[in-house]
Amino acid sequence: MQSPSTPLRALPALPTVKPRLLRRLLLPMPIILLMLACGYAAYYLSEQAGIRALADNGERQLELHARAVESEISTHTYLPSLLELEASVSRLLVTPTDYRRERVNAYLEGLNQRSGSRAIYVLDTSGRVMATSNWRDADSFQGEDLSFRAYFRDAMRGQPGRFYGVGSTTGEAGYYLAHGLRHHGRIIGVAVVKIRLDPLEQRWERARLEAFVSDENGIIILSSDPTRRLKAVQPLSTETRARLASSLQYHWTRLDELQPQARQPFGSAELLTLPGSDPSDGAARPIRYLAQSRRLNDTAWTFNLLTPVQDVRREAISHGMLAAVAFALLAFLLIAWNERRKVLATRLAAREALEQANNQLERKIAERTADLRASNERLKAQIRERRQAEENLRKTQDDLVQAGKLAVIGQMSTSLAHELNQPLAALRTLSGNSVRFLARGNLATASSNLQTINELVDHMGRITASLRAFARRSDDTGAAQLGKAVDAALFLLRPRLERTPLTIHRAFTDARLAIDQTRLEQILVNLVVNAIDAMSAQSDRQLWLEGQAHDDCYQLSVRDNGPGIPPSLRVHLFEPFFTTKPGEQGLGLGLTLSASLAAAASGNLSVQHPAAGGTAFVLSLPLLAPSPVENPHDE
Q1: Does the keyword Transport apply (predicted)?
Q2: In CATH terms, are 199-308 and 478-630 the same topology?
Q3: Residue 190 to residue 121: CA distance in whole angstroms
Q4: In DSSP terms, which residues pair with 304 in a beta bridge?
Q5: Comparing C-alpha atoms, which of 175, 172, 170, 226 is closest to residue 197?
Q6: How confident is the model over 473-501, as pLDDT tens digits?
Q7: Class for domain 79-196, per CATH?
């Protein structure tokens, strides 16, 4: 009975040591697992949020570039039907002769140069090319049989021919627009315009945009990456391949399939993993893209936008690592706090003092929190008041700008009424004479009167159009042409200049400035009106408009030979409602508003007082890059 009692007494000693040791050994495991879970959750949420942001931005890019493709196509859609109006084309198709062919060739050559298309040619009802714009070239379409083309068959049925393909003669890809030419109600031939869409790809490459366009057969016809061009975005059946090969739409291209390595749906878009195509990438590692597509209007094509997501993934990995490190730090702090709590629990003698100090600290924190909350509320109220004041100031400034315009128009009202009354009186006289001449049968004189009436109405329309453009509201941004603004300002002041003639010296180069066109015209009107008023009492009136560019800024000087401004008044020139004009001739807002408009456009308006006399106002505005020169043949 006593022998088994010895091991029973030894067993209770084991649990006193193992539970604490076991807890210390197993505690890091759940912490590591939770740290990994927190890091993965942060990675996943960051990646999803980043891809959604890319998708939102991609929708805007998709709409913008899809409309650019539609615009490029629609620019030339009118050209095939235009040939129906040319009598020489119809005569060639009805009765072909060498002389008529040469005339049509020359006409098509000139039309092709003016329109900027690749080629324009005319086919007869059998599909043979009768005349072409490239008749001088060695690879001319002259005499080619193109009856196998789908656009020819569609046009012969009276439908618009739309076709993308690789030329069988030149091997050059292009988009074909065809139209059936009618003569006395029947189709006598087909007009075809070939355009190249290479500029779209070049713009995509310059913008570093990953995009491609697939046609109705699922073949990539336009791509910013040349290695993807003429590849199928979907598997092609044997019948489809045979049909495309027989039509020679893509010449002898193999039409390989563009096969993603991975595909995952993401809302209305897809996440695709495609092989890398950058030669500098070494092993050409696969790249993951966000693929978004949009169907183009008036065609069966689809515009596809590929947005790389590797940057989003790298950022998500960084966020995941930061979240894991933050969780580990928090866990470490919690463990340290727990150990500290245990140490403090052993200090029974100091517990009461510690609780009292803790209560005092909490009370002070509460008081400080209340003070901070009150200060925060006061700060929010001040911010609201400041924003409201800024909004009121902006509205007041806009109203003052509009008031300045209306004040200038009001000062010109008498001259404008005189300018309009003269054409109206002439219209009344000419219309009455036209009625009498028509009654007498004198059609020539009546026609001449009506022509004069038409010119007077156009003149009055230009005056009212200029006033409407000058009076409309505008904003701080925009682009203005200096020469156009000077001409518009002088046109508005033409009645005033006729009553107070002066000599205007123009010594400036035309430039594009970073300001709204109407606001620049308003500034010029105010400065020229001030110069006219300053020189009204003298017989010799000279006005100089001089300008030149300095780095990225343009300075225009408006200088007169008037009596100048007294030194005592110079400091008040740009103050609101300050004017040196007698009576009610001015509100004193012209220079103030002009300086404000210049400052809103990141410029300034200053005044100079030349030693030779007179006054010079110098307007400084930022320069814009010159607009591209238009091709005169495009008109």
Answers
A1: no
A2: no
A3: 9
A4: 212, 293
A5: 175
A6: 555 568 889 999 898 888 878 888 888 88
A7: alpha beta
Amino acid at 427: L
Which residues, listed in sequence order, are joined to residue 175 by a DSSP beta bridge? 164, 195
* Average pLDDT value over all residues in the chain: 79
Residue 501 to residue 135: CA distance in whole angstroms: 60
Rounded Cα distance between 303 and 371, Å, is: 59
In angstroms, the CA 635 to CA 632 distance is 6
Tokens representing 157 are 């049925």
Name residues whose C-beta falls within 8 Å of residue 298's C-beta, 6 or more positions apart in sequence.
70, 73, 74
What backbone phi and psi angles, to 5 degrees, belong to 3? -65, -40
Distance (Å, rounded) from C-alpha 377 to C-alpha 385? 12
Vertex 86 angle, CA 81 and 90, to 5°: 90
Fold classification of 478-630 (topology level): Heat Shock Protein 90 (3.30.565)
CB-count burial class (<10 Å; 0-12, 13-18, 19+) for 298: exposed
Both structure tokens of 343:
């140490």
| Residue spans per domain, the chain | 79-196, 199-308, 350-411, 419-472, 478-630
- Of the candidates 215, 316, 224, the one whose C-alpha atom is nearest the C-alpha of residue 274 is 224
Q: Report pLDDT for 622.
A: 93
- pLDDT given for residue 630 in this prediction: 41
pLDDT exceeds 90 at position 559: yes
Average pLDDT over residues 274-288: 66
Please report, to the nearest 10 degrees, the dihedral formed by the alpha carbons of residues 83, 89, 94, 96 taken in order: -150
Other beta carbons within 10 Å of 312: 21
- How large is the average pLDDT for residues 144-165? 85
What's the pLDDT score for residue 19? 62
Assigned architecture for domain 199-308: 2-Layer Sandwich (3.30)
Give the global pTM: 0.43
- What does the alpha-carbon distance between residue 19 and residue 435 come to, in Å, rounded to a whole number? 120
Element (DSSP H or E) covering residue 230: none
Q: Distance between CA atoms of 172 and 444, rounded to whole angstroms?
A: 58
Average pLDDT for 345-374 = 85
Using DSSP, state whether 474 is helix, strand or coil: coil
H or E element: which one contains 349?
Answer: none
Choose the most confident range, by mean pLDDT, from 40-49, 228-237, 280-289, 417-426: 40-49
Question: What single-letter amino acid sits at 431?
Answer: S
CA–CA distance, 375 with 370 (Å, rounded to integer): 9
Q: Is the pLDDT of residue 610 over 80?
A: yes
- Beta-sheet strand order (sheet of 269-274): 220-223, 210-214, 302-308, 287-295, 269-274, 262-266
Contacts for 293 with CB less than 8 Å, ≥ 6 apart: 62, 269, 302, 303, 304, 305
Q: How far is CA 66 from the centre of its chain?
A: 13
Q: What's 72-102 look like in SS3?
A: HHHCCCCHHHHHHHCHHHHHHHHCCCHHHHH
Tokens of 528: 């020229």
Say what the pLDDT of residue 365 is.
93
Assess whether pLDDT exceeds 70 at residue 339. Answer: yes
Record the tokens describing residue 386, joined without a space: 């400041």
Residue at 509: amino acid letter: T
